[in-house]
Amino acid sequence: MRVGFLSLGVCLPKRIMANDEWSRYVDTSDEWIRERTGIERRRIAGPEEGTATLAEGAARAALDDASLQAADLEEIILATDTPEVYSPDTAAIVQHGLGCREIPTYDLAGSGCAGFLQGVDIACSRVRTGRRNVLVIGVEVISRIMSWQDRNTCVLFGDAAAAAIVGPVNGAGEVLAVVAGTEGGKAGILGKEIGGTRRPFGPEHVASGEYNRLIMNGREVYKEAVTRMTAAAREVLDRAGKRVEDVTLFVPHQANLRILHSVAEHLQLPLERVYINVQDYGNTGSASVPLALWEARAKGRVRPGDLVLLTAFGAGFHWAAALIQY
Ligand code: UT7
To answer: For residue range 185-215, what is the model confidence (pLDDT) as tens digits?
Structure first.
């Protein structure tokens, strides 16, 4: 059976925040952010927008794109590090919001920026065992849970949701191969600790300003990102019996322009074949890969017959890659 993407959908917060605005909150500049990250602006969720509403928006767009109804969905996998509420998971809230049948739903919580591709990996195997129309969503509203006083992290991120429906396909959109892996020994270089059972949230964390702090060893994350995304890309190509030269478009996780350039260089892929939109959205976590793929398709960068390589890395330390034949 051929399994692949039946459709894609995106939902973006209305508010666009340019780099300059960050200098109101932290000691930074447009120049520093552009030079070190390539980011120029990002979307920030407003009071009416949240993880569930953005996820639902992306899901509805993906349903429209596939000419399907919510009742046609058979499972929902939602990847996020910024859930609507602590419990239950956001997928359950989205299921109700969409008006689905009582289908199984679950979050890949804390899966970081690799979550969407991990979800695609699971969805493909679910479709192979009989499910149809599995909705995979990547969504983050990180602006609401991060510290707006920590310049090391706050300038990097943006809010967004993007989704794909995975199901049986007749050729176009087929997932030729997908790979995923985790090195749990690197869990400490990127994440958010306060609020879990190891360090339950308490008033002392508000006093110390730790309560919303993201832990990030930027340089270590950078090195891991380049190594892991490059290795995952090579592995998925090998598995499908394809070469780097066969790739028409490379759509990596949009974390940082320098990371993207470095991965492309390691793979010896010319930049004309790399899709980049980090300048407009920043790092949108698990929404990043499907958002970039959706935009590339909307701009006519994905044509019938194209071989599209997706890869991502994130907190965990998780990585994943998929190869799509359009
Ligand atoms: O999905 C995964 C999420 N995380 C990532 O992808 C992060 C990966 N890492 C990176 O992208 C880069 O390491 C950063 C963009 C985070 C940082 O770039 P860098 O070239 O590694 O800079 P650095 O950490 O070595 O910091 C250089 C200087 C430091 O000042 P000192 O110690 O040299 O005086 C920082 O304090 O830049 C300072 N700095 C800033 N200055 C202005 C850090 N953040 C900022 C800022 N504005 N926003």
So the answer is: 998 899 999 999 999 999 999 999 889 999 9
Containing 158, the helix (H) or strand (E) segment is none
221 lines ligand 1 (CB under 6 A): yes
The domain total for the chain is 2
Domain hosting 32: range is: 3-171
Closest Cα to atom 25 of ligand 1: 219
What letter does residue 213 receive in the DSSP assignment?
A: P
**Within this chain, do residues 152 and 231 fall inside the same structural domain, yes or no?**
no
Nearest partner of 91 among 115, 286, 83, judged by Cα: 83
Ligand 1 site, residue 148, Cβ cutoff 6 A = no
Taking the whole predicted model, whether its pTM rises above 0.90 is answered as yes
Q: What is the pLDDT of residues 164-186, one digit of tens each?
A: 999 999 989 999 999 999 999 99
Query: Looking at the structure, do residues 104 and 233 belong to the same domain, yes or no?
Result: no
